[in-house]
Design goal:
Elements lengths: L9 E5 L4 H13 L3 E6 L19 E5 L5 H11 L3 E4 L6 H6 L1 H23 L4 H6 L1 E7 L24 H20 L3 E6 L1 E3 L8 H10 L4 E4 L5 E6 H14 L5 E4 L4 E3 H15 L11 E4 L14 H7 L7 H14 L1 H7 L2 H11 L3
Parallel strand pairs: 1-2, 1-4, 2-3, 4-5, 5-6, 6-10, 7-9, 8-12
Antiparallel strand pairs: 9-11
Helix pairs in contact: 1-8, 2-4, 4-6, 7-9
């Protein structure tokens, strides 16, 4: 049996037009015969172009809407009777949370709470077998655990929450609500906390697609501070496989940390991208590393994240397929082969955001 096959024939996915969500939707429908209700508000990072390959797929139903819209959630649950919910919907960019934290509270905290509350009402109407098999899977981040020093052990599922940004604080709050709805009301929940994702369809405010796009335009490559901040990088398809494994076999009420086992500094990451681009798409202007520009560090910038994947590997048999070297090459090649997607994303609002965030640094 293919490890990607899910035992659920009907899913409601929230945030399914975003980066990780759209990859999950595409991968899931490629491996399963069931139906997918895809709810996304299509804010700046939600993009229907991500789902172009599913345009003729009758199993995929896209609905534009907000997870905080109780009436819409209620209607979707009653009409489509999904067997599981996978919640990707979130505001996810730390820099944006520093400039405008209220949006993160509204979406990540209030929105998740309202989604949980409507799902609880729906779950309580199900027949015993359906009720027993139902799952609410909440996708979260390693940033809720705070920052690590160089010699600290990796984040385990038992690590105390110590969020340091408005973004991570809002995700921590949403995680706590998910846990509370299980322990108080019995809702069968699962939580995943992942490391930094990369791959196709990532909005180019995030580091990897930003660096690729700026190289192609021969623009500066902004690196915060000294560039020595460390992240663990997870290829998005590996993350999608892990979510399916947790959905299929995870123990109710448990949290699973998902990482790529690829710790690398931001500076080395950018140099790696430049090196690959120098090889496969050289510029007449020179070496892409000439574009590296150090900018003022952002407030509260966590020094290091690292995920311990022991639990998900030993209990569910999942491990990442991609090393960083194979995954980053695939990612760069995808962006080079999909320049129309990149061009369409880089509209006025994207340029305004880049100006707001980097012009004063």
């Amino acid at each position: 049996m293919n490890k990607n096959l899910a035992k659920y024939s009907s899913l409601l996915v929230t945030g399914g037009a975003g980066f990780i969500g759209s990859n999950f939707v595409i991968n899931w429908l490629a491996e399963n015969a069931g139906t997918m209700i895809n709810l996304d508000l299509l804010t700046y990072s939600g993009n229907l172009m991500n789902l172009t390959s599913l345009k003729e797929d009758q199993r995929h139903l896209f609905v534009k809407g907000d997870i905080g819209d109780r009436e819409l959630i209620k209607q979707l649950l009653e009409k489509h009777r999904p067997h599981a919910i996978v919640n990707f919907a979130a505001e996810s960019h730390v820099d944006r949370s520093i400039i405008g934290p209220e949006t993160f509270v509204e979406t990540n905290v209030v929105g998740t709470f309202r989604l949980l509350d409507e799902c609880l009402k729906y779950w309580n109407t199900l027949a015993d077998d359906d009720k027993r098999n139902f799952r609410f899977l909440h996708v979260s981040t390693d940033e809720v655990y705070g920052s690590l020093d160089e010699a600290d052990p990796k984040f385990t599922e038992e690590k105390q929450y110590e969020p340091n940004s408005p973004y991570s604080a809002s995700k921590a709050a949403s995680d706590h609500f998910v846990r509370a709805y299980h322990h108080t009301f019995g809702l069968p929940v699962l939580t995943t906390n992942c490391s930094n994702n990369y791959g196709p369809y990532q909005y180019p405010e995030k580091l990897i697609p930003l660096v690729i796009a700026n190289c192609m335009d021969w623009k500066p490559l902004p690196i915060y501070g000294d560039g020595m901040n460390v992240r663990d990088w997870l290829y998005v398809s590996d993350h999608c496989d892990a979510i399916t494994a947790v959905l299929n076999s995870g123990e109710i009420g448990e949290t699973y940390n998902i990482g790529g086992n690829n710790e690398i500094t931001n500076l080395d990451l950018v140099k790696t991208i430049c090196s690959i681009l120098n090889e496969i798409s050289p510029s007449s202007h020179g070496n892409y590393q000439e574009l590296i520009t150090f900018v003022t560090d952002r407030p509260g910038h966590d020094r290091r994240y690292a995920i311990d994947t022991t639990k998900v590997e030993t209990s569910l048999g999942w491990s990442p397929n991609e090393s960083f070297q194979t995954g980053i090459r695939k990612t760069i090649e995808w962006y080079l082969e999909n320049i129309d997607w990149v061009a369409a994303v880089k509209d006025g609002s994207y340029k305004d955001w880049l100006n707001t965030n980097y012009s004063a640094r």
